[in-house]
Amino acid sequence: MEIEEITTLLPDYKKLMDAIVKQTPEIDHTLYAKQYDSEQHEIVTRPDKTVTTDEGTSQVIVTKVSINDQQRIVNSAVAFLCGKPIRLSANPKEQVEKDLLQVLQKTWDDNKLDYANQELARLMMSETECAEIWYSVPCSPDYWAGTPMEGARARFRMKILAYSKGDTLCPVFNKYGDMVAFGRGYKLKVGDKLEEHFDIYTEAKTYLGVNQANTWVATEEAVPAGKIGVMYYWQARPEWWPSQRAIDRRELVISKHGDSNDYFGSPMIIVKGKIVSFSKKGEDGKVMEIEPGGDVSSLAWPQAPESLKLEYENLKSLINDQTDTPDIGFDTMKGLGAVASGTALKFFFMKPHMKAARNEQTHGEIVQRRINYLKTALIKLSPKLEKAATLSIKPLYEYYLPKNDQEIVTNLSTATGGQPTMSQETAIKMNPYVQDPETELAKIKDEAQTSVLNQPPPGTN
Length: 461
Fold this sequence. Notes:
Blueprint: H1 3-9, H2 13-22, H3 29-36, E1 49-53, E2 56-60, H4 69-82, E3 87-89, H5 95-110, H6 113-127, E4 129-138, E5 154-161, E6 168-173, E7 179-190, E8 193-201, E9 205-212, E10 215-222, E11 230-234, H7 244-264, E12 268-272, E13 275-278, E14 288-290, E15 295-299, H8 306-323, H9 330-334, H10 342-348, H11 350-381, E16 394-396, H12 405-415, H13 424-430, H14 437-453
Antiparallel strand pairs: 1-2, 3-16, 4-5, 4-11, 6-7, 7-8, 8-9, 9-10, 12-15, 13-14
């Protein structure tokens, strides 16, 4: 869909809205939501059994165990991708470039984007789509105080959009794959009624549509930044998709195993003949007396259900392998030893890191677009930053990896021939037992000076 077509349909807002919705790919949000929520898994709706005996018909409740593998897979992928904050990488040389980077970092921090990045990644991996929308709001006179934008009376805010938050997302791409517009459907409660809205964002203008008595009315707003203030995140399938069938089978195996335990877990006694007497409850050396020729035996499994255990473990391994999710349970991590080397940890987390690199292609591209948008928007708000428009600012991802601090320090000491690699001041600041590093450093210096003064003069006995 081209921007010219949007402009042509604009006079009939309902027709334009329908055209945008029609060209939006359909996503089975209901299915993905059920798979992501373990309480909505198919195993939970497993029917109970009906048993008929001489005494009549009765219902036997079957075991229904759901496992939240989908959430585990998504949470692991999010943690490896952006569990560590995404840093802004730039090489500013002129002061105006440093100023732009400073106000961009302030906008980043004030909108708590380190946490928003994780939420956006989680929504993208579980719902397959989400978006962030940027808008300007008035700010107090002292908001930009002490910054290169001191005196500006507006700031930028961000809102996350997703199906689970009540939003209908409708990106509009042209034939070259560029997003030329974005439609957002949502409802607002006005009084005791829900008011239907559908907004359309373009580079030139924003159109705010509302359904009034079955008639769509739209108002226009200017776009100060000259760019669409919407970043759209999308992936083809949810993160757990390759292993969905294995997850279903794993839940069924463990549930049926639970049924077997209900039947055979407690000892069952088979008696052949008539029981004459039982020993009393609590007696030592319990005895059961039966008629001559009778027999007593216990009913038990002829062998442990090793095949069930093997299938369960195979399914668990298959799920982790298909989704590049590490098994970081207690038993697995215990096998790495008390202090694993950095090389061993890198090999252990190689597949999750490769997966994070693939996810960065999608997530990082949109974060880069966010940075470019904020650069333009901040320059529009403060034209004196115009000379820094060419400054290259990129998102820098650092994938999660446990560190062996002792090994790092040893390697640094070896590389410097045993020379110190850290100042005393830095070591004190890193000490978790020190509450006030400056005061502690001053005390250490005073103690060292006092120790020198108390030394006897050279040559004395």
